[in-house]
Structures are given as C-alpha cells and as structure tokens.
Amino acid sequence: MSSEAEARERLRPFVARADAFSGWLPDTRKRAPGPPEPWDYLGRAAALMVSARSVLDMGTGGGERFASLCTSFTGLAFATEEWHVNAPLARRRLTPLGVEVVRARSVQLPFRHGGFDLVLNRHEELDPAEVARVLNPGGRVLTQQVWWRGNELSRFFPRRTDHGDHFGVYQRGFQAAGLEIVDAREHRGPVCYESLGEYVYMLCIAPWEVPDFDPLGADLAALLAMERALTTVDGVVLTEGSYVIEALKPLALPA
C-alpha cells in the first residue's frame, strides 16, 4: 500500500478536478453492475410536461437536464438555482429557451400560490408544504432523490451527515399538505467507483456528505482505510440508492 505522501499525490488531481466543477453532470467514472432504477425520471417528466401550461424546475444546476425537456415546451417555465456558480450557467443555457432562472433557496420558493401545473425536482432539497403551495389544483410534483449513498462511508467517517428518512418524511409532508401520493418507489444496489480518487471527487463536489472534508489532510488516513476495506476487482464498491415520488394536488371541490 502506498505511503500517505504517495496517496496524497495520487488523490490531488481529483481534488483539483472537483475545485473546477460546475453544473450538475459530474463526470464520475463509476458503474452500477446491478439492475437499473425501475423508473425513468426524465421520461416521466417529459410526459407530464405535455399537458402542463406552467412548470418549475427546482435546483436546476447548470440547467443541463431541464434544457433537454424545454426544447419544445411552449408554456411558462421557471427554474431555481441557489449556488452562485451555477445560476449564471443556467441562465445562459435556459434563457434562449424561454426559461426564467431565479436564484433562490428551494425551501423558500419566491412564487405566488398556485402558480405551476408541474414542479420538477431532481436531487434538490425541498419543503413539501412549499411545493404544495405553488402547485395549481390538479398539478403534480415529480421528484427523484438520492436515498442511500455509500452507507459504508459511516464506518470510516462517523461525522458524515445523517439525512434521515427523507423518503418517508417527504411522503408524509406531501400528504399533510393535501397532496395524494401517485407513485413512491426506491431502489438500491452496488456502485463501483473506478478508484478511490473518483469517490473523493464525488465527496468534494457534495460537501454536505462529510462536513469539513479534508481528503489531502486530516481525512487521508480514513480514506486509505476505506480503500483497503472496500476495494474489489471492480473498484471501490459502495451501496447507493435513490427513490422517486410523484404526488398530485387534488382539484378544489366545487362550492
């Protein structure tokens, strides 16, 4: 096994790559050898947009995925993005498609009540009550979230953030806000990272996973212990998973 000094130099290019990251399409070298997710988020989003007159994409990143959905959309389209690096990227990409990009926190949406037929959210924090507030009666929310990311990481980083059971929390929150759950499914399985560096890269661009992550300093020894424990012929293997929730805001009852 390499010394810590050699390992530090081995990981340094991945940290530098993360420092230059923007948007939200990370070029991580990893693969999932098991069956894929049993849903198609982008396909379902596109299908829902066909009948929507107004749509909001929460936490659009650099607007990469939302742009692919908006190429033929003729209704009213908004996107939010909080990160100061991504917001201008999203504006440059989405404004020519008629999408207005608003820099805002996703848990405090700066929109009026009942402004959207459809709210999309892929891997962005949300407040179920806020989503319900901005939905029109008959409107829907579709969200895909990371549910189980490298739980093995907790063995080596006890301080990692515990995100709790947000799969259940979001469902209960939507229901408490008066929405009906149309679909709620989860999926998990092994994910093989090509090298420890690729996983370090992912942790660097997701700083909420391990607070004050210091891969080239204080956390190097823990990373090397994780590498020794989790490396197989397929790379560094961890368990990851995601879920999808689709919820409907019922039509208002006639007076």
Describe this structure in words.
With 255 residues, the protein is α/β, with parallel strands linked by helices. It is built from nine helices and nine strands. It has helices spanning 4-19, 41-50, 64-70, 86-94, 128-134, 153-156, 166-176, 196-205, 220-230, and strands spanning 30-31, 54-58, 76-80, 99-102, 116-122, 135-149, 180-193, 231-232, 235-248. Strands 1, 2, 3, 4, 5, 6, 7, 8 and 9 form a nine-stranded mixed β-sheet that branches. It starts with a helix and ends in a 7-residue tail after the last strand. The model has no long low-confidence stretch (mean pLDDT 92).
Task: Give a short overview.
With 255 residues, the chain is an alpha/beta fold. The protein has nine helices and nine strands.
